[in-house]
Amino acid sequence: MSSSSYTPPAPGSKIIIVGAGALGLSTAFALSERKEEAYNIHVFDRDQIPVPDAASTDINKSVRMEYGNDTLYLNLMLEALPMWHEWNRERAEHGESPVFHNTGVLMLCRNGQLSKYEQQSMQRIREVGHGHAIEELTTPESILAKFPHFKDAVSNGYNIACYNKEGGWCHSSEAIKHVYNKCLRNGVHFTLGKDKGCFEHLHTDENGAAIGIVTKDGAVHQGDCVVMATGPWTAGLIGLQDKLRATGQVVIQFKPPTSSIFHTPGQPVWSADVSNTGYYGFPINPDGKIKIARHAAGYLNPRTDDKVSTPRTQTSNPTDTIPIKALRDFREFLANFFPETSSMDVSYARVCWYSDTADGHFLIAPHPKIENLVIASGDSGHLMKFLPNIGIKVAEIIEGKENEYTKVWGWREAPSNQSDGSRDSASVTVPILEDPSNDDTRMATLEELKA
C-alpha cells in the first residue's frame, strides 16, 4: 500500500467520508455492503444530494470502454457495465426510469484516418473479447447510413469512425440519487448542510493522526478512519497541490426545436477526434436538451494567498457561464460539425470542475504522513462511468488489500509532461478564470450566449 504505517479500520469502526459526490457515495455503499465488518459509516457534505456544484450533478456523462492503450480502466468498465444494467432493472421494478442509456458510442476522426487513441482503443477492446461490440465505419457512406444526422460533420472531414454498441450515457444526477438511496437503505448516516455538514479541518491527536473531523459549526466528529472524497476541493482542503489540481472544463447545452436533426431517433454519444479537439457530446435527453463539452486543459482559479486552484462554481458565483473564448471556440467548432446550432441560443453553460492528476490516474490511497486518513480523489474527468463499482475498489484500499489498482492509484511523484491519453494537455499553459490581463477568460454574458 501507499503507506507502510497504515492500519486498516477494524470491524465495527466508525468511518467518516467527507464528500457526497460519486466517489464518496460509491465508497459509502460498498462499505455498507460489507455486513460482516459492520462499519459505522458517516458521510458529510455541505449541501443536499445531489450536491448542486459537484461534477456528477449533471444531465449526462459518458459510459465508454475506450481508453486507448490503457486496459486498467477498460477492465474496470467491463465490471461496471453489467452493474449499470442491474441498476436499470432495480429501477424498473419500482417504476423508475433507467439511469443507463445504451445508445452506443461513436468516435469520429478526420481525413480518413483513425487517430492513435481510437486505434489503440479498438485493439484493446478486441483483445479482451469484446470485438463483437465494435463496428468500423471506414467511409462517409457507412457513417451516414447508420447516423445520417452527422452529414455536416462528415462533409467537413469527420469521415471515418468506430462505433461501440455496448457504451452509452448515464443520467448522472439520477444515478447519484440512486446510489444515495441504496446507502440510506443500508443504514449509512448522512450529515448535510452548509454548517453542520461542511468540513472545516481534520481533528488530530497529539501525534498528528486523524481521529475525526471538525465541521463549520464547530462540532467535533470522532472517527477511526477519515476518507476525503472531496473532488476538486481536495487539494485546497488537505494541502495536496503537488498531487492534485482543480481545473474547470467547459460545458454547454442547447434545447433544439422538435423539427431539429437532434430529435432523430437512435443517436449515440459521440466524440470528434477527441484526443486532438477535446469535443464530445450526447444524444438529446428526455427533456429535450443536448449537452456538448470539451475535455481539455481547462481553466484554473487560484486562491490569492497560496495560489492553489479551487473550484469557482455557480453555487458561489450564480451569474457565471463559461469564458468568452471557450464560447467562441464552441461556436467555431459547431459551425462545421453541427451548423444547425448556429441559429440556436446556448440554453445553459457552466464550468465543470475536475480534480486532475498529472498522469490522469485517480489518487486513492492512505496518506503517507497522516495516519487514519485516506484520500479518494483525482477523478481527472473520467470517473462517473465507474459509479457502480469504484467504491468496491476504494473499500479494498481502505481495508489495506492489494489489487491491480493500488499501485496505479497510489501515492506517487507527479510525472512531468505527461497527460491523460484522451486529451493533449500536458504542455499547455492553463489560463486563469477572470484574469484581468486576459479578456479571453472573462465570463460570457447571457446576451453573448444567444445565437
From TrEMBL:
InterPro entries: FAD-dep_OxRdtase, FAD/NAD-bd_sf, MTOX. Gene3D superfamilies: D-Amino Acid Oxidase, subunit A, domain 2, FAD/NAD(P)-binding domain. Keywords: FAD, Flavoprotein, Oxidoreductase. Residues 439-451 have a biased composition (Basic and acidic residues). GO terms for molecular function: flavin adenine dinucleotide binding; sarcosine oxidase activity. Residues 415-428 have a biased composition (Polar residues). It comes from the Eukaryota. Residues 413-451 are annotated as: Disordered. Residues 14-396 form the FAD dependent oxidoreductase domain. Its cofactor is FAD. PANTHER family: PEROXISOMAL SARCOSINE OXIDASE. Belongs to the MSOX/MTOX family. This is Sarcosine oxidase.
